[in-house]
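Hi L.,

As promised, Aconitate hydratase, mitochondrial:
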Amino acid sequence: LSPFLRLVSRSLSLGVRQYHVASVLCQRAKVAMSHFEPNEYIRYDLLEKNINIVRKRLNRPLTLSEKIVYGHLDDPANQEIERGKTYLRLRPDRVAMQDATAQMAMLQFISSGLPKVAVPSTIHCDHLIEAQVGGEKDLRRAKDINQEVYNFLATAGAKYGVGFWRPGSGIIHQIILENYAYPGVLLIGTDSHTPNGGGLGGICIGVGGADAVDVMAGIPWELKCPKVIGVKLTGSLSGWTSPKDVILKVAGILTVKGGTGAIVEYHGPGVDSISCTGMATICNMGAEIGATTSVFPYNHRMKKYLSKTGRADIASLADEFKDHLVPDPGCQYDQLIEINLNELKPHINGPFTPDLAHPVADVGAVAEKEGWPLDIRVGLIGSCTNSSYEDMGRSAAVAKQALAHGLKCKSQFTITPGSEQIRATIERDGYAQILREVGGIVLANACGPCIGQWDRKDIKKGEKNTIVTSYNRNFTGRNDANPETHAFVTSPEIVTALAIAGTLKFNPETDFLTGKDGKKFKLEAPDADELPRGEFDPGQDTYQHPPKDSSGQRVDVSPTSQRLQLLEPFDKWDGKDLEDLQILIKVKGKCTTDHISAAGPWLKFRGHLDNISNNLLIGAINIENGKANSVRNAVTQEFGPVPDTARYYKKHGIRWVVVGDENYGEGSSREHAALEPRHLGGRAIITKSFARIHETNLKKQGLLPLTFADPADYNKIHPVDKLTIQGLRDFAPGKPLTCIIKHPNGTQETILLNHTFNETQIEWFRAGSALNRMKELQQ
């Protein structure tokens, strides 16, 4: 300590104001990551040390993304670093899991044989609560029907040192923002919208459960060195334009795959006009452009949010290390987009894809031209993307104006608070009551309709209709399992205005409504506080601390359970090339993880691999007949459901392959979309391109995600062909594999298949899975 005291003394004697005692003490102070883990500290000193090592090596200015990512390198002095090329070995600060993915993650962790998690980790119960009639009743019902799963997660958390947020606590990403995210953190979460934490200046990345297991086991986590897309914001938000419009605009520019392999880094003077929770909204929906994650630089809006959520000590520490929490002047981006917020107009994206962007002023005319239903059946606000205090306040400001003129919503209207803290606070401050009075139903603090947990009664399946939401994703059938529901995503205040008007043809910036008295009026742009003027109301305590001594804790999984199933190891590679693979399905067009492993009613089987495998690829379109869930059995020549055909092949020892189109596996982080094909006998997935998380998940489970060296070769393969994949004995990074296409008429064609495997991932394949390889290393 004496050199430290000498430094303080020398600073005082020299009268150096900027290096005062408080600053020096703060840099050496121990500040906890969260209130729930008082003995786990923020390591800005280590971040700084690693950044300095890497900066000296690279000899150039660094982006913020690079500072945080490289600041968490396992070996910063020797790690090979090349954007878009090398694989980085990283040490994340913490892990977060939502209940639907935590089941499989914890089952894998149990299989590892390890006694405790190596980093702070949490489980959040938000996915298994179905929206039916309203918050309290829906929550009670969910606790009843999911009791077995909740008990498993609670006891597994207690046994292995994982914090447990009970059902009703809120959506994982809102809980993380309120309690766990902080500037400079590297956090991985088993949900694709984990990037929400970038709104608080962290690098927060969505992963599959097997990646989470690696980190919880204390193994360095591998990530391909991301490129960095810069988005420079100028001007300032005003009027009806909201933070949601920034990402809706970016999605229209980059499309659903334009961010693949990159971190989107927002910067520029326009950033300061956006609230912290608004920045989180933008980062959250960055998942829809395929980005690894998104991030904003630390600023006074984040400091304000940290202080309001009881973390002023973290804000003070971040102030001292601020140079490491913003990009270096002169840093270079791989791509640069500029958006003038003064010119940005309210947007609405959809239907059926989140990158089909329209200004709100134009969407009515476009809908008429395309034949989309103009009448809005339901407006839905909330979700992990837009459920902040500010979001609810702006929506209430719109609703209050309608009520003042005697109007209520023409459309059905639902509200999903993001957390128990948000619910309690908007109840106290009157927002919830205003939204009820305009016709809204307040749902449980959970994901609900955003992920298909919606017992919708107002339409029949197959009925063409339109809904508008403040959610992030609007794939076919995602919200209500109806492929004819045209879902549009926009800001909560625009959803509220459109629900009041009842039609897509309404533009609140220019159009008038007619009040109960027959007089016309125009809605004024909403204005609301970004944070409550008083303190947040925390509501009910819904957190379960893991006990200090868990030696007596039991975790039971019944062998007859239909919800949970202990995992059996996958078979190892037999050392041979893959001969005569049958094509299970050649997929036509978009194939998201919702198509591969549907959510909604299937969520109840997320802890039971065999049962949930009955939804394998039931939403994918078969190019042979243009139908979903209808493929030809190559042996019987009969058409049947995809899972049934896969089970037939497995029973008869027939190994199979899937052929896919562009950006295969976009959307959710759910690793079930990789576990299911592996469980039912699949060996490879061959596509034009993959979404990042899904490609990694496939590798983790011992499958071969391969891409056509020439995308046009997709057209050479027919569903009745057989494929042989050669070169596996010499499987090596960067070395293509050979595929022989065997046509029924006896002719053959040879094509090349690329891959992105590194040495570690090749070891996963040879061992049968990443988990198998972990066990081999332990032995």
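The longest strand covers residues 578-586.

Thanks again for sending the construct details.

K.
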